[in-house]
Amino acid sequence: MSAIETDLLKPELVFFDFEATDRIDFFTKLGEKLKEGGYVKDSWLDAILEREKNYPTGLECTSISVALPHVDPQHLNKPYIAIIKPKNPIEFDGMADTGLVNAQLIVNLGLLAHEEGQVAVLQAFLGIFIDDAASADIMAQTTPQGMVDTVIKYCAE
């Protein structure tokens, strides 16, 4: 059983060729989309920017560079997992002071779980992204439903 709640993976939360000039622009535009869907509160943007500053989420894996930003539950209206494949990589600070990471894929977690639950989900996604074949399969997806189905497939393994 996966730590990832696969019912939170929805085509409406998958964004391809997402245009953003930098991390702040990225979070601003993503926040607007999430707010339109009723997922986040007005406090979300400031909260995620502050959390990202204090706890960077960029990660260089062998075949993919990812970022796994998340925010505390009080800034959410309902839980979600958004998957974003930006048009151009977006620069994130690396986890544990590992330097800058040009994220090719961003998985934004909006979970109602407590810290332990968030850690379990992060670990599950990391397990997927350290698998070169799984990462390649995910990056090869071109439709929102295809992305959802592919991530769910690897969650089940």
Automatic annotation (TrEMBL):
Record has Transport as a keyword: yes
Alphabetically ordered keywords of this record: Sugar transport, Transport
Domain of life where this protein originates: Bacteria
InterPro entries: PTrfase/Anion_transptr, PTS_EIIA_type-2_dom, PTS_SugarTrans_NitroReg
Short name of any one Pfam family annotated for the protein: PTS_EIIA_2
Limits of the PTS EIIA type-2 domain: 7-154
Record flagged with keyword Transmembrane helix: no
Annotated protein name in UniProt: PTS sugar transporter subunit IIA
Organism: Paratractidigestivibacter faecalis
